[in-house]
Amino acid sequence: MPPAQAPLGGGGAAWRRLLLLLTVLPLTLATLAFVLQWRGGGVDDPTARWPPHAFPGMAEPARLSLPSSDCSDVLAGSSGASFPYLRGWSFPTDSGAGLGLQPKVCVQTSTSAGLEQILPWLFYHKVVGVAQFLLFVEGRAAKPNVAGVLESIPGVKVVYRTKDLEEQQASSRIWNETWLSGFFYKPCNYELFVKQSLNMEMAIVMARDHGMDWIIHLDTDELLYPGGAAEYSVRRLLSEVPHDVDMVIFPNYESSVERDNIKDPFSEVSMFKKNYDHLPKDTYFGMYKEATRGNPNYFLTYGNGKSAARIQDHLRPNGAHRWHNYAKSPNEIKLEEAAVLHYTYTKFSDLTSRRDRCGCKPTKEDVKRCFMLDFDRAAFIIASTASEEEMLRWQLFKVCGNLVSSLLPLQLANLLSMRSSHRRNPMPRAKMLLDLETCQLI
């Protein structure tokens, strides 16, 4: 048998070239990667987008240099905590607390919300002059990845609902008094109301220890609007209150939702139904039926506002909306322009989540032991029994405020509502202009 012939010369050269290519290509790619890494190469490195120590808790916040303006005493010289997930946002940290400015204002809340709701709420109230925040947290707000961020913000004190706290509150004198006894040992909203009152009682002591002059209880779906005050400062507003006044009432305005796809209420909702206290009485009573849209009351939820109390001896809560004093009847005044903006049932999820709020049966009788307000009772029943399509129709008819505009003449609609028309997101700007019928956030 003849020996096998060697490959043709051309074929051998092709194999050699292929072998050379397979050797050189990895070396070339490795060299290119080294050069790009050494020179930066224009590659977008996600870890290089944020400055060192920009994440909360990693380092002390840097000092901010703010331009001088009429608002310099509110915002100037404050340090800012930077939050990478809210680019361009920083928190003025003292609002007068470290500059000797008076009075010092404390806001207390009880919340289980997440950062997407709490951070804009904190930022807004920092800008309008609140010096100290006392956050009583549970649920999502108490999780380490949420509470850790909140604790890193100067001027914020996070209070967890621990066993020690519950034992301390169990010995409160409130349990032996009659003013809250009608809410004891009941589920859902009644239990929350008692918990809020006990937290407010503890917050009085904590605020006094922090050197605060005024204390306000707000929920994280409420913004304090200091209308009528210089520079729209809560501190300026309360500094003008006579010294013999113990409590200041802020009437509440309620959000009037105009569409069903709201995601960020603070920046997307711009119309509010005015409180009875800020309306001409003939307008209120004359258009009451049209304004309620078939709901039980003029407002969907509460209508008695919120209040700020001067911190002094014997101060106590009087439910979530008011304060009282064991030693005297407080001298109170009601503000004519300032208000609390209440963003209630603004998102569809605010309705759908009602079904998980408590274990009550979705019947007209059983919901009475769980919810105080008629609309909350109706919302719980519809959320527990209806399909998503039925809930959406219910929300459009019962909640969405564009129906108000279609039912009322323009002049009367303007009187009943306060329009907040903003060209930009109002939260980072937080500068307000108010006339008789319009609140413009720019």
Automatic annotation (TrEMBL):
One of its GO terms (biological process) is cellulose biosynthetic process. It comes from the Eukaryota. Keywords: Signal. Residues 1-30 form the signal peptide. The keyword Nucleus does not apply. PANTHER family: GLYCOSYLTRANSFERASE-LIKE KOBITO 1. This is Glycosyltransferase family 92 protein. It comes from Panicum virgatum (Blackwell switchgrass).
